[in-house]
């Protein structure tokens, strides 16, 4: 017999010249795309349709091929198909339910393609008709809710979530998706929580559930009362919150693992050998090639949880026993390739034994550590747009954490010490840190390390001013907590002071270039006020008196930078230009730093002259400092320990609107290509009882 080939819904014999034969389901679709009622000639038409394997490609293609006017002519049949799909969701036979869910996905996507054209008809009217929309959508949402909450097939639950993601992301801007009004009225929030609270459901569907929730929370969030925002903000069930944390932690861990693998592969490759031969000339270029797609979708979910729900803060420090297990899941779970913006779920929230070498501290890890490691990777390269967005969102999440009283309590807890191996950008002038020598410290030390690392590694022509401002604000908020609660943190403060002084030096060296794009005085003022915070209140939160002495030593040692900054801001504040006011603020803020320099420098010079020493050692300078504190006069500066709290709606609305748009496009793209295949589903339901 001649071999049969199948393509686009057509069956044809490769050796014959006869017209190709169409699949029965394709013939039935063709009947729907006429103006006649297909059930007139065949009363069992709809019943038979849902026994046929769906041909997604043909159905969507057929819808997209019609113009708006042609589609309006068959509107009654489209409405009828949509309504029969909803009816089929209540059937006992899973094959019918699967086919109905698949058909709904194709209908929604196909009709939406037409909605983008100039014909401009309403998508709801086209799918269900205005007169029946409320009842139909209510029935649809109730059926999906029942399927998600039932103890039945996991494949059906998976397909329900795919349909909901299809529904939510059918428009780029989800706030313009009027279908979501019905998802707001007929909430599936409890069904999502149920998935997250159950270990089995969470392992199978947690990723899709978390991404779906993050998107629903962002529907018209500034324009009306969004019930998903309200409900998420009051969730207090520990199992549910921990479940959500596990899903997020696993997705971020998967990213970290992939990056680590790529990094190791890169280091053992040809290019690594080449750079070893010629030195470190090309180390920055080499590192740029280590690239793993960022995961804004899961990061958005983490942000919404941290920002909206104070109870979720406890989850950040919660150890994940599932992540410490040495066993893999008993049943294999199908995985799909990672796609842009992390729209594909990781396989499980259990770390397998093969993954354990990723972190020496995996047994005592938690969501915050995983997030800090993720942040240290994505914040390395801000030239890439997705990484820039990811880096900004990481800093916004850290801002929310730094403002929270409870979060600060566990960040600074001496009894909660961790070894956090952050990724550091390869730089010519420093050696790669040995991971094994990392000390166990309170988690706030890792946050400060991350901020210092960012400050040191992003002084470049394409200066990420916004990220620097957020970075300095996070440090300031942590210092405010330490001052308020008199927490004496044993941290290498010198690294922070050195990074801040080098940042000021960079701003001055590139004054002309940077002023063309940015108000650098806002950032300079923030940096100077961090030093003022240490000078004014350092005796209440620095670990030892000698730490306070070292602060003065660094200011005196690097006095030339502060002198140059003063000269620059004085020059601009005495001119009548646009920078007069912001520059004058920096001038006033430098008063105590200048007082320290002007007080101690003559004393140091005098000590050197009397003792006939050309260059004083650090210990000798510190001796001069300690013996001359009593004659130093400083001005009390107000408001150093005050800050403006984070506000999303007033300052970040445009960023989140664009971010959610980007996530929506990529979730839809991923659904279109690799998550609606029926093969696995139909194997599960191969017989109809």
TrEMBL record:
Transmembrane segments: none annotated. The keyword Membrane applies. Keywords: Membrane, Transmembrane, Transmembrane helix. Pfam families: ARMH3_C. InterPro entries: ARM-type_fold (IPR016024), ARMD3-like (IPR039868), ARMH3_C (IPR013636). GO terms for cellular component: cytosol; membrane. It is found in: Membrane. PANTHER family: ARMADILLO-LIKE HELICAL DOMAIN-CONTAINING PROTEIN 3. This is ARMD3 protein. It comes from Lanius ludovicianus (Loggerhead shrike). The lineage of its organism: Eukaryota, Metazoa, Chordata, Craniata, Vertebrata.
């Amino acid at each position: 017999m001649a071999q049969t080939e199948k393509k686009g819904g057509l069956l044809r014999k490769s050796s014959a010249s006869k017209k190709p034969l169409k699949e029965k389901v394709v013939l039935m679709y063709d009947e729907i795309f006429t103006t006649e009622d297909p059930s007139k000639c065949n009363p069992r038409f709809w019943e038979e349709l849902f026994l046929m394997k769906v041909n997604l490609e043909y159905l969507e293609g057929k819808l997209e091929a019609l113009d708006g006017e042609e589609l309006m002519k068959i509107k009654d049949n489209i409405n009828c198909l949509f309504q029969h799909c909803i009816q089929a969701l209540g059937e006992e036979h899973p094959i019918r339910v699967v086919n109905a869910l698949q058909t709904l996905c194709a209908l929604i996507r196909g009709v939406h393609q037409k909605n983008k054209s100039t014909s401009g008809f309403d998508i709801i009217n086209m799918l269900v008709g205005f007169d029946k929309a409320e009842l139909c959508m209510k029935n649809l949402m109730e059926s999906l809710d029942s399927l998600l909450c039932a103890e039945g097939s996991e494949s059906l639950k998976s397909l329900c979530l795919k349909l909901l993601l299809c529904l939510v992301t059918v428009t780029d801007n989800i706030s313009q998706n009027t279908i979501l009004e019905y998802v707001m009225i007929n909430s599936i929030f409890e069904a999502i929580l149920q998935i997250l609270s159950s270990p089995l459901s969470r392992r199978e569907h947690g990723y899709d559930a978390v991404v779906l929730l993050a998107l629903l929370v962002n529907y018209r969030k500034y324009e009306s009362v969004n019930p998903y925002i309200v409900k998420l903000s009051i969730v207090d069930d520990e199992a549910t919150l921990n479940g959500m944390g596990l899903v997020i932690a696993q997705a971020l861990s998967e990213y970290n693992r992939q990056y680590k693998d790529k990094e190791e592969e890169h280091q053992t490759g040809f290019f690594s050998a080449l750079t070893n031969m010629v030195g470190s000339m090309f180390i920055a270029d080499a590192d740029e090639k280590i690239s793993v797609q960022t995961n804004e979708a899961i990061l958005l979910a983490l942000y919404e949880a941290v920002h909206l729900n104070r109870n979720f803060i406890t989850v950040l420090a919660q150890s994940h026993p599932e992540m410490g297990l040495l066993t893999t899941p008993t049943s294999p779970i199908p995985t799909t390739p990672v796609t842009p913006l992390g729209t594909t779920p990781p396989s499980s929230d259990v770390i397998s034994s093969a993954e354990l070498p990723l972190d020496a501290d995996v047994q005592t890890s938690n969501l915050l550590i995983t997030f800090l490691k993720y942040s240290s990777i994505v914040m390395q390269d801000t030239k890439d747009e997705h990484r820039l967005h990811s880096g900004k969102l990481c800093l916004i999440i850290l801002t929310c954490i730094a403002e929270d009283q409870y979060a600060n309590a566990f960040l600074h807890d001496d009894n909660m010490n961790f070894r956090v191996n952050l990724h550091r950008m390869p730089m010519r002038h420093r050696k790669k840190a040995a991971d094994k020598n990392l000390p166990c410290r309170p988690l706030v030390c890792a946050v400060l390390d991350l901020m210092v690392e960012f400050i040191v590694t992003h002084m470049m022509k394409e200066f990420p001013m916004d990220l620097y401002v957020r970075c300095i604000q996070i440090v300031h908020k942590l210092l405010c907590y330490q001052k308020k609660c008199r927490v004496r943190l044993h941290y290498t403060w010198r690294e922070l002071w050195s990074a801040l002084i080098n940042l000021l030096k960079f701003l001055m060296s590139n004054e002309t270039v940077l002023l063309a794009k940015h108000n650098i005085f806002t950032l300079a003022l923030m940096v100077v006020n961090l030093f003022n915070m240490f000078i004014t209140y350092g005796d209440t939160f620095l670990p030892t008196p000698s730490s306070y002495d070292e602060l003065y030593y660094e200011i005196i040692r690097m006095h030339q930078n502060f002198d140059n900054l003063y000269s620059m801001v004085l020059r601009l504040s005495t001119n009548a230009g646009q920078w007069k006011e912001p520059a004058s603020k920096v001038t006033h803020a430098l008063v105590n730093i200048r007082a320290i320099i002007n007080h101690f420098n003559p004393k140091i010079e005098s000590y050197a002259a009397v003792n006939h020493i050309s260059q004083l050692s650090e210990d000798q300078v510190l001796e001069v400092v300690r013996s001359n504190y009593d004659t130093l006069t400083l001005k009390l500066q107000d408001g150093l320990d005050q800050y403006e709290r984070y506000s999303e709606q007033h300052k970040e609305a445009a960023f989140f609107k664009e971010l959610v748009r980007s996530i929506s496009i990529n979730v839809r793209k991923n659904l279109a290509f690799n998550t609606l295949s029926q093969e696995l589903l139909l194997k599960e339901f191969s017989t109809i009882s």
